[in-house]
Design goal:
Blueprint (H helix, E strand, L loop, with lengths): L1 E6 L2 H5 L2 H14 L6 E6 L9 E5 L5 E3 L4 H9 L4
Parallel strand pairs: 1-2
Antiparallel strand pairs: 1-3, 3-4
């Protein structure tokens, strides 16, 4: 199971972290991979100047916006399932 942590700290909140979470939930449901992904909220991941900070398991932090969630899933998630 992959764990995707999305920052909900103040900076990421202002950059749309809740929209990213909603889009991730929607896309994960469309792909029918809910049982393979654990989606978690996280506090500051230390990359406040980028877009919303997201981490897969214990890997480096990536920046994400609601607009690029499908690309993120294709590029960084589906190949690991």
């Amino acid at each position: 199971m992959l764990t995707i942590s999305v920052c909900v700290g103040s900076s990421c909140h202002l950059k749309g972290s809740y929209n990213v979470i909603k889009e991730l939930q929607s896309e994960i449901a469309k792909l029918n991979i809910e049982k393979k992904i654990e989606l978690k909220a996280s506090f500051c991941l230390g990359h406040c100047t980028s877009a919303v900070s997201v981490k897969i398991n214990d890997e480096p932090v990536l920046s994400l916006s609601a607009d690029n969630v499908p690309e993120f899933l294709q590029t960084h998630v589906l190949s690991r399932l």
